[in-house]
Specification:
This protein is α/β, with parallel strands linked by helices and about 260 residues long. The chain is built from eight helices and ten strands.
Length: about 260
């Protein structure tokens, strides 16, 4: 029986490369697939003062299901990552993380992939580089759960799929923003609001309700995107100017937009 070779999927290439085609071609040739996270550059200036890591969501239909760069949960975060990079005007490095596998299970969660990404950023930019995590759905959950990492200064959770018990350690001094659509039928706004209340015991947490917003953030994408980019700039660069964020502040009362 012929020996099987191992294929690592941890390479970095520009968006648009047919990862899936390469993968299945290798599988047909007998390669053993090794699932690994991938960090994709959106914008990396020469001397950034901080970094942003954008985390996607996406459930899994089976165990160890590979993340495709073309799945909707990944694609919907590309405009947000680009919007952040544009707003940062060359002062922040922006990366997108592709998880090692889809979904969330007891054996391997996206939090581990986020930790790997934080290590990669520290190696590339220096261990003292502050980071903002931005995630959607299960990526939002991962952003919150990884927010206690020493390098993390702030985190944004968009329509996060969370449990009330998702309270990590080490949140002291962190800034957190949760933005959730009122019409989300996939991730519960009530659960994320309850979690926000618990997180306020340790961190400065803002909660914004997007009236009529749904899980995919399609109809109100500009509201989700603008709040995210402005919060990143405010917490990483000290710039202000978003009236909604000013209203949210550290107040426990959610703001509806």
């Amino acid at each position: 029986m012929a020996a099987r070779t191992s294929l690592s999927l941890s390479w970095e290439e520009p968006d648009g490369v047919d990862y899936a085609g390469r993968l299945w071609s290798s599988v047909r040739q007998g390669a053993e697939v090794k699932l690994a996270p991938r960090l994709i550059e959106v914008a990396v200036p020469t001397n950034p003062v901080g970094a942003v890591i954008v985390l996607h969501g996406g459930a899994s239909r089976r165990e160890n299901m590979m993340v495709s760069p073309t799945q909707l949960s990944v694609l919907r975060m590309i405009p947000i990552a680009k919007r952040i990079a544009h707003a940062a005007r060359g002062e922040l490095a922006v990366f997108r993380l592709l998880n090692s596998r889809r979904g969330w299970d007891a054996h391997h969660t996206p939090v581990r992939d986020a930790g790997w990404a934080l290590e990669q950023v520290a190696q590339r930019l220096g261990g003292s580089t502050p980071v903002c995590l931005v995630g959607h759905s299960l990526g939002g959950r991962a952003a919150l759960m990884a927010a206690g990492h020493p390098a993390v200064r702030s985190a944004v959770a968009l329509a996060p799929w969370v449990l009330r018990a998702d309270v990590p350690e080490g949140l002291e001094g962190r800034r957190i923003l949760i933005v959730h659509g009122s019409a989300d039928r996939i991730a519960s706004p009530q659960r994320s609001a309850a979690l926000a209340e618990r997180l306020r015991h340790a961190a400065r947490v803002g909660y914004v309700v997007v009236d009529g917003g749904k899980h995919a953030m399609l109809r109100h994408h500009d509201k989700f995107g603008a709040l995210t980019a402005d919060f990143v700039i405010e917490t990483m660069l000290g710039a202000t100017g978003n009236d909604v964020l000013a209203r949210v502040g550290s107040d426990a009362v959610p703001v509806t937009v």
